[in-house]
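User: tokens in, sequence out, please.
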């Protein structure tokens, strides 16, 4: 017996209702949160939705660098920083000349306190794009992330998770799962993103860190000079033992050498990073912008002719703004057309498909 078109339509709609009810029954509550580990070795599992239900994962985002899961490099960074300060203020300060010791310790202490403050601020600030903060839209819990595919539509700059149109330098960081305003990079050492709201504090932090670290290294190596040219001062001030043996002095020197070498490498890396970022600021680039430029066979950072490059960047941004505005207008018109279609259009189309046997 052949069913009528109306019966087929009812059957199709009942199947769709059943499908929808099953889908909604499997969607977790918005109050659920993914059970991430407290510490991770890398951020690879953030780049796709494999292993976590998108509805649970997309409801979460990292507010700041103190939120779990934290990258293992972050606690290592803080531990090494504490070791550096402990060794300096308990041991290396003994190498200062008594006439300037108090002044030097105060200056170094101020620099350390400032670095600590800038670092804490950098990690504590919420770097979300201003449009996301102001519009406060509900997050798309159904979006499935795929490795290598950006969350933000490059044509319209619409974020498929935050559901907001963002600025052209905004990037949705998958490790933080939020849109970062003027995204520069994700820093695993601080377990947070560096964007427009914390970029300057980040620069101040690494600048002070590189200067203080280099001073600690030079002072630890200077202990060898004191040992060979003023051994009584070395024994009395550093070892606190006028009758210290050569073996005791050797152990102390080996420890100071290792300390100086480690922090010379760390502070040297920080200094290189600091110079790199100052150059980026002068040229007018972000880290991700420069890397994208290099991937497109752009000029090396140190070979960029700044004035010409800035003009080209301004022209490219102007063209990009116009292109995005045009794409957004087309998208809005398309959505308006779809929303104003006759309510019976879909039903009529379904009936036509049913009559031709296209729906089973």
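Assistant: Sequence out:
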């Amino acid at each position: 017996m052949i069913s009528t078109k109306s019966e087929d339509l009812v059957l199709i709609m009942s199947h769709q209702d059943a499908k929808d009810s099953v889908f909604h029954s499997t969607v977790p509550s918005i109050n659920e949160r993914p059970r991430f580990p407290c510490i991770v070795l890398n951020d690879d599992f953030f780049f796709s939705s494999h292993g976590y239900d998108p509805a649970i994962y997309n409801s979460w985002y990292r507010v700041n660098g103190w939120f779990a899961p934290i990258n293992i490099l972050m606690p290592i960074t803080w531990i090494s920083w504490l070791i550096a300060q402990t060794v300096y203020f308990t041991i290396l300060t003994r190498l200062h000349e008594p006439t300037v010791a108090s002044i030097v310790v105060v200056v170094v202490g101020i620099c350390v306190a400032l670095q600590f403050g800038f670092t804490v601020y950098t990690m504590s600030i919420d770097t979300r794009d201003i449009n996301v903060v102001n519009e406060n839209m509900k997050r798309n819990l159904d979006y499935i992330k795929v490795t290598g595919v950006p969350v933000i539509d490059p044509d319209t700059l619409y974020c498929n998770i935050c559901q907001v149109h963002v600025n052209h330098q905004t990037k949705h960081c998958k490790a933080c799962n939020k849109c970062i305003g003027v995204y520069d990079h994700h820093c695993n050492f601080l377990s947070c993103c560096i964007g427009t709201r914390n970029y300057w504090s980040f620069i101040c932090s690494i600048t002070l860190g590189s200067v203080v670290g280099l001073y600690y290294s030079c002072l630890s190596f200077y202990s060898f000079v004191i040992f060979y040219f003023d051994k009584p001062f070395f024994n009395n001030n550093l070892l606190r033992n006028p009758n210290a043996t050569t073996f005791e002095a050797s152990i102390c020197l080996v420890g100071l050498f290792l300390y100086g070498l480690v922090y010379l490498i760390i502070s040297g890396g920080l200094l290189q990073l600091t110079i790199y970022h100052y150059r980026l600021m002068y040229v007018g680039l972000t880290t991700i912008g420069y890397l994208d430029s290099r991937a497109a066979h752009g000029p090396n950072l140190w070979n960029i002719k700044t004035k010409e490059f800035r003009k080209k960047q301004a022209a490219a941004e102007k063209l990009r703004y116009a292109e995005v505005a045009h794409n957004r207008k087309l998208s809005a018109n398309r959505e308006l057309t779809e929303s104003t279609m006759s309510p019976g259009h879909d039903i009529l189309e379904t009936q036509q498909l049913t009559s031709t046997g296209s729906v089973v």
